[in-house]
Request: fold
Amino acid sequence: MDRSLSCSRSLAQLRSLLHSRPQAVASVAGSKSYPGISGTVRLYQTKEGVIVLSEIGGLPRSDASCEGQVFGFHIHEGTDCGGDMDDPFADAMSHYDPGKCGHPHHAGDLPPLFGNGGRALSLCLTDRFSVDEVIGRAVIIHDHPDDFKTQPSGDSGKKIACGIFRRITDFCL
Ligand SMILES: [Cu+2]
Ligand SMILES: [Zn+2]
Reply:
């Protein structure tokens, strides 16, 4: 098949998918120390996997050159954004990992978010879980980059924002 033809077709499919309704959305909010963080993470189920579209604002920013902010980003196994003084989102627990894999092969491991003056936009495809599996689970943003090596969670530091995936139904429209 002509490669350029197949690429343009998949781009058209992606465009129409992003105009359609996602199957689930998490509204993300920052902890008490990061009250300005807010945004959404949308999940679209496709035959090839789940498309994860994240739009987050109010992230910590650095104006120094060569210090652009990078934030670890994962789906965790917990179903609540509660916590305590030490860890405001402790109830989100560890990375979602039904296959008992190591980091960064946990099902819930995602590419980190790149901050741009406090705003991040990310689109990725992952076949490590279905939308149904993560309904009700937490998505977490961390204050450090993920090193994709350190166990069990990539040394990505504190949890600074959290959201819970909710199913989008016709009722919500
Ligand atoms: Cu995490
Ligand atoms: Zn992980």
